[in-house]
Fold Galactose-specific lectin nattectin.
Amino acid sequence: MKILIVFVLVTLAFSGCDATSPVRKCGNGWTGFGRKCYKYVAEAKPWAEAEKHCQLFGGNLASVHSNQTHFFLKGMGKMSGSYKRTWIGAQDATQSSLWLWSDGSVFDFSAWHSGEPNHSGGEHCVEMNYGDEVLWNDARCNTNLYFVCQKAQNINICF
């Protein structure tokens, strides 16, 4: 039993986990907001390739469930003084007007630009930062856009 206690104490001593050091929950290049971590990727890709890119990091394209998250992500997409059109994780490719998030969560919030979604010419994926209102638009999934990934925060437990 004493050996186990010594092992635990030594492990904690070398874990870098103490009361004075900040606990990184998201990792380099990721920003925490709420219970999620987000990463803005300024590399234009079609929606499906953007989703695959996010999955490589253990996440998905961002899902939006509140106005607060919408404004946070909108801010991430503002580069060089202007908003860049940006993929988020919603699509209706399986059934028109049945919007789904790529992470499987419920589609319970939207911020559509006026007149959207209009499904013009086979638009089945959702971009944000569209138009003068800087809101959402349904777009062709093969359009190359920047994108926002999301993943769960890592929880570091210190004793």
